[in-house]
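Re: the pair you flagged

First of the two:
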Amino acid sequence: MMEQKMSSAAVETQHIFQVNNLSVYYGGAIALRDVTMDILKDKITAFIGPSGCGKSTLLRCFNRTNDLIPGAKVKGQLTYRGQNFYAAGVDPVVARRRVGMVFQQPNPFPKTIYDNVAYGLRVNGMKDNMDEVVENSLRRAALWDEVKDNLQKLGTSLSGGQQQRLCIARAIAVQPDVILMDEPCSALDPVSTMRIEELMLDLKQQYTIVIVTHNMQQASRVADYTAFFNAEALEGGKRVGYLVEVDTTDTIFSNPQNQSTRDYVSGRFG
């Protein structure tokens, strides 16, 4: 049902996601409060802010992986291409196929390079033109020339930067609409980080990208829009994250509206 609805709704729109008064709870404790923002089509949006401010929590809402955490609850509204992403009839598995995820630590499967990329295709019953899709995905991830003669080599034997690009190839093989990246370069050296950033700028020609990063220079280099999150202390030592402001990246880094944003991007705290 979700598959059919999503296909028919795949019309050109500026807003891929619209978030309205969204809050996330874990075991009854609020972790993220009242977020309202838009994610725009074919743009890179970066989430920045100190640890514990809800950046990754919000990112997980965009592919329903908070559903997999016991006691997690999402309140408010989140729409994907104009549809309620958390409606009762929405299949989370189909939703996750439309919204791929790349994690902080490269996590290739203990399979060959070829089988890593083909994994999602096989799980989703996509059998046609497998070799072509694998090659195209590795090319899009800027990895084909490095691995084309060793596709039966284990993905886990690649370098850290190559592993992360393999994970990106695996994510795009199933032709998602959106790619989420949670600190994708934090475990990589500067050269590998540069390759991933160049790759993101190339991929945004076809995909909408949302990235969580602690690296403000990275956000300033790759993001079209930047959202700054902060956190405040609650009773009992718990913290709740909230969105301070979101704007074009140039504005956030040169002329933010909020003093706490100004302090964070200038390095005064965080």
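Second of the two:
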Amino acid sequence: MPDSMKPLVLVVDDTPKNLQVLGKTLYEFGYNVAIANSGRQALDSIRKEKPDLILLDIQMPEMDGFEVCTALKESLETREIPIIFLTAMTESSSVIKGLELGAVDYITKPFNTAELSARVATHLEIKQSREKLSELNAMKDKFFRIIAHDLRNPFVGIIGLSENINKNLANPDKIDLNKILKYNQIIHSSAISAASLLENLLEWAKSQSGNLELNPVSLSLSQLFTKNLELISGLALKKEITIENHLVDDTIFADELLINTILRNLLSNAVKFTSKGGKVSFSSKQTGNMMEISIQDTGLGIDSKNIDKIFRIDSKFTSLGTDKEKGSGLGLLLCKEFIEKMGGKIWLTSELGKGTIFSFTIPTTTKEKSDEA
């Protein structure tokens, strides 16, 4: 397992020998290890990088383990980190106090290596299971929220407007063609919005059930953009938005369904959040065996305090487009998941009132060819 994916265990003890032994033992078990020789140093370390689990000595000068535990459990940012107390004390009152403060377990010193390994592994597994369950619950909530609101609204509009058209046509002597045309345009726009959202929902459901197969092939990036620009050309024309193409060396190695979903969502978002007369541009540049693709708009931009919410499944952050177009936030979640599934990454930069740039990377060659090179 790459070091970046290994769980991080923080060991807090004021005895250098204990830090050395515990650090070496945990490293041999396959964990990343951070150490702190005091309670204050532990809190400073956690503020910089949150560990997956903490081994915390009770008896320390200045700030003991109980005080450190209390501080961690009072913070929303750290309260879910599992804490195992390290103690030479065997009195039941100390053990009970530690558990009452929120610790998940305790290990007595001198510790048994097999016991240490088993307890650490068990509590890391429990933590991962809780996080997965929380993520699944968030997915379920988002799924039903989208069905209940975002998917229902377009159909309510379609039904209401089609009824108005029928009423207008029922009286041939008073037919208002301009009104019918206006209603029909809104119905068409609502139908496209509903169809796009439904397509995203189906693809998301397939990915979450594990039934999404990855079939990467060599593809022309310029042809992919041309195909997906056709889907947004009507709205871009209506808003008088200029489209600029700055693509370069454009062969990528990607799953066609996934990359089309990514481009469809990012391009439609760019047009959605750009005002009349604005500009949407896209570009690419090759770095090693990866192609970096950027889609930039001159639209509303995103407040810096909301940028971290963009790719979070548990976030309810959505905003209206410049023509009051609604969104669910699902499209960007799909983009992130699909890009990472193909071995790339996605990020964004934005300035409120000036626009946003979404950038992502996609391989330009197979892994086998890259290894051969």
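The chain has a mean pLDDT of 82.

-B.
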